Amino acid sequence: MCKPPEYVLSPARLGEYLRGMREKHAMGLTQASRIAGISRSYLWGVERGRQNITVGTLVKLANAYSLPPSEIVFAVEDEQ
Question: Residues 52-67: what's their mean pLDDT?
Fold first, then answer.
């Protein structure tokens, strides 16, 4: 039986993508974190791949950047 592929969301790639989306929307860390309802320091850590992110936070950031959460996931997933 074939083993299904495993997908990994790299914290570094996710952070880079989210930072790019924030910059594309011309938002600073403070503005983006306020809109998403998360702390500025947490967002800073996520963007640098130093903080783990929950699905709930991913949805908050997707909403802040007017994106469907699935777009973020598909943009950064790696097949192992």
Answer: 95
